[in-house]
Amino acid sequence: MTRLRLAQLCLPVTLIATLVTPATAGAVPQGYSYSVPLDLALEAAREAIRVCESNGYRVTATVVDMAGTPKVVLRGDKATVHTGESSFRKAFTVVTLGPEFNFDASSGFFQMQKTNPFASQLATVHNVMALPGAVAFMSKGEMIGALGIGGAPGGDKDEVCARAGVNKVKSRLPQ
Q1: Stated pTM of the model
Q2: Which PANTHER family does its entry note (predicted)?
């Protein structure tokens, strides 16, 4: 390999090393946002299931991050298979549409269906569900994820359980 070719190969490494200096090494990457820590996500999901089970509802709890990626999925004892999909889709709806349309629970999108003539088209987006049952986790006034519940006999009951789970951990999220 010639010296010129070797120098050309080393140039990108030099540029990368120059960009990552001590001044920039500790900086928060652009686009980064805080996420619900795993231990709090798990605790919130467990609390939501506990509240639902105390009312005789067999549910699944799903916590998603702001990318709509599941962080925790807990299927309660005797919860049927469809409860996982509905809990995920409700939480996904909150994190993907809530910030745009100013709602922090999937009941907000459910209500929007009644007043916004365009909302029915949004409900056709993959993984969006126009039913109550999910509540956002908030930190420093910003949404950082959502907890969705599926399986109670009515989304309003699912949402009560989701809210109980979020409330259990919200004081431990950065305010």
Answers
A1: 0.82
A2: SLR1406 PROTEIN (PTHR34309:SF10)
